[in-house]
């Protein structure tokens, strides 16, 4: 058997019941040894005779193949795997169909080769016992009988198939439509209701051959007329035909010379209208019965887009009129709407075809045309142009970025496409800023490094971000900078606040995803200080946006940012907002506390020191969370390390010898250590059990002298440090900004409980913590313990451990001094 090559597209049906294009190639049929039978083969068109196989499918004797619309063959290879071949020519489809029917022993005149669903043997025997389904004569008096026959056949796939064949072979649809016209003239309501049920049932037969008759130019309006008379509506039928003939108008913004294309557009619009507006919403069981109707519309749209895309004269005229200054506003509005609908149709295309579609539009000059249209005053035209721009950005942002970088070499910043988009976002008149939200999403896509390309010769990310920060960022941030002059809000109305929140959202995205570009911009323009002015807004969502912006910056743990924050005292407005919020437990309270908690947990030393040294007085009375006391503890530990580098090094040595364990388990070495006999100990060493908190004394005068010397030195240094703190912090009882604070913080109490230089009380600091010299020196004190042997003194500090954990472990893990002396020797 000779191979016949025909040009086809291969489609597969996805989970969303949409057809995915698998490629274009040439189909042939032949015997495949591996599959042990005659098979359909499709080789990729671009690869020639030896091209890659797009499809290799054995023609199974029991598979149901369907021929649709004269150029489609559809079948199922598995339970959830549907395939379709769309032929360029009818002759090719007929020839392959004959091959399939020949293998299955079927007559090529049929449109389906097998029954779609296996049924019980009893039902199959009953149905096969009658050669076919006999329809009653098409007369007014038999409409009720016919409606009952259709309703009874729909549940059974076999009876449904026989009914479809009978309706198709007898030309029954045209006869029914003739009866419909008679019933309308006679105003026969019962007959019209029966015809509604019959025509709705014919739709559910899911048969392409019947759809082709029903959707033909001479029949489709009568079919819609039948569906107007829903019995549920009683004597008030819908007026779908009036809408289609009188209200809906087909506008040719550019004359379409191809009559086939015009007819296809009319048909697709009407069939889409039937699916969306005329047919009742299908039940769960009827959903799959309309799959052929979905496919009919889908392939029509693909065909329309392809025919328009290939018509270069049409597209050239379209863009020429769109950018022509002499084109009147109404005409331009129609042109933009047509282009918008054209792009919407393209969404039915598969990725490779859609890429070719947008490439065609790009070559025809769609972006320069949009730039002209977006600069116009007509709000409707601009809205439609924005929708077209969104299609382009979402599918191919790199194409848009390349265009705007090229035009920047020729045009001023004011008329750049991206700056036009930013200006429309800023000037959106909608109280809810619906358009601005859409435009902000497009800008976010354009500046997202994740979808930027990197090649051997150039890096799109570097080039585009340099362009954006040089030419566009000042336009984006202009409303923010203009509204926060003199460190106060100029306008605080709802619409302005919404706009500033959108801008802040985009700037926050830039902080997270861009590096030195946004850092340089923030520091050079002092952007963070301006943003923090917004924490005083009456709109909580805007104040929270400002806090989120600062939180993202702190989260980077970048010392450049930290030095900028410290130099400009930028925690001042945050603390002020915290105090103004008072005792309210709300999102503002939680967001600010979380920011300080992050600084504490991550131990950001420069910020910790800055906060405690400048804002401790304002925050020391906050005791419903331990965040601020924890910050003070971090700060004191940090100062202690700086003042006592020798102790810090000894602490690290001791930390290396500390083995953390679960309190419930002890390893073998530790068990041996605790179980050791006192006889094995050195002479003069005392043994103290771990649970005993008494002070241990070592024997020997020389050892006493060695021990007391470093302790006395440590206590002297401690006193000096405390006196220094009193001198430094005692100079001012309130905050002093940039040497001297620019605002005063008030407290709820009449007097301050404790000064920063005072030893913290038990409510303020954990007993025995650094900075509380009056705490007992027992071994049970969790953060600080003095361990001795000979001349060794160690301040053991574990700043990263939770205080409660340390409480629980100190008694079990701190060994007797005599034993520890052995380990550290």
UniProtKB/TrEMBL annotation:
Offer an example of a GO molecular function term for this protein: protein phosphatase activator activity
* Segments of skewed composition (Polar residues): 692-701, 731-741
Q: Could you provide one GO biological process annotation from this protein's UniProt record?
A: DNA damage response
Give the Acidic residues compositional bias ranges.
Answer: 798-810
Region (Disordered): which ranges?
679-825
One GO cellular component term noted in the UniProt record for this chain: nucleoplasm
Instruction: Provide ranges: composition bias, Low complexity.
Output: 742-769, 775-785
According to the UniProt entry, which residue ranges have a biased composition of type Basic and acidic residues? Answer: 714-729
Pfam families hit by this protein: EVH1_PP4R3, PP4R3
What are the residue boundaries of the WH1 domain, all occurrences included?
1-107
**Role:** Regulatory subunit of serine/threonine-protein phosphatase 4.
Task: Write out the similarity annotation.
Answer: Belongs to the SMEK family.
| Listed name of the protein | Serine/threonine-protein phosphatase 4 regulatory subunit 3
